[in-house]
Amino acid sequence: MSPLEVNRRSLAGLVRRAGVLVTGGVLLVAGILMLVLPGPGLLVILIGLALLATEFAWARRALDRLKAVGRRGSQTLRRVAEKGDASDGGPPAGLR
């Protein structure tokens, strides 16, 4: 492999990494803004982190933490819904 080919490959990798950083960063900032503005903030944050996680370990760790929080939240909601008494038509017991 010639030195020119090595430089071309490393440049392509650098350009890809920069593109992922810029695009993922924009999506992450837009998602954070959408938490207070109209829009699907959490979804855009997840997409931005997923894109950044393809190149950066810190984003992979943040995405893993966010997924764990989501799993715990869904388990909690399931438990609360199972404890609810549907016979009286009111909210589940944990939400009264």
> Assembly state here?
single chain
Q: What is the 3D form?
A: elongated
Mean pLDDT across all amino acids: 85
Report the order of strands and helices: HHH
Structural class: mainly alpha
Describe this structure in a few short sentences.
It contains three helices and no strands. The chain has helices spanning 3-34, 41-53, 57-83.
Describe the 3D structure.
- This protein has 96 residues and is mainly alpha-helical.
- It has one domain.
- Helices cover 75% and strands 0% of the residues.
- The protein has helices at residues 3-34, 41-53, 57-83.
- The longest helix is centred in the N-terminal third of the chain and has 32 residues, at 3-34.
- The chain starts with a helix and ends in a 13-residue tail after the last helix.
What are its keywords?
96 residues, mainly alpha, 3 helices
What's the helix and strand layout?
Layout: H1 3-34, H2 41-53, H3 57-83
Helix pairs in contact: 1-2, 2-3
